[in-house]
Specification:
The protein has about 110 residues and is of the alpha+beta class. The protein has helices spanning about 15-25, 25-40, 85-100, and strands spanning about 5, 15, 50-55, 60-70, 75-85. Helix 2 (about 25-40) packs parallel to helix 3.
């Protein structure tokens, strides 16, 4: 079954991807991409003591992130900015830098 097509039985054949693209907010997608990539790099999930905020201003992405040690006594901050089309790479770099700063104070999952 082709899950990319919606409404095939009604004959409309509207592609789900086309619908999603019409309602997608591209800047929000860039921000979410950076944030998710950082979480992937640190091995984070919903229970990880980390906060990240990516924002877009005039085609630039600004990403600030704070990671807390496993015992919660220390925090590690890193921020980076760049072109919004580099969101994934920015997220990777932020995650990598946070892990370097935290050292053995954060083990992740």
């Amino acid at each position: 079954m082709d899950y990319t097509t919606w409404g095939a039985t009604s004959g409309s054949g509207v592609r789900i991807f086309e619908i999603i693209q019409k309602i997608n907010h591209k800047d929000t997608e860039f921000c979410a991409t950076a944030e998710r990539e950082m979480l992937k790099i640190i091995g984070g999930d919903c229970a990880t003591a980390v906060g990240g905020l990516a924002t877009i201003v005039e085609n630039k992405i600004f990403f600030k992130c704070q990671l807390f040690s496993d015992d919660g006594t220390k925090s590690f901050f890193y921020e980076l900015e760049g072109e919004k089309v580099e969101a994934k790479n920015i997220g990777k770099e932020v995650g990598t830098k946070l892990l370097e700063k935290a050292g053995n104070k954060f083990k992740g999952k």
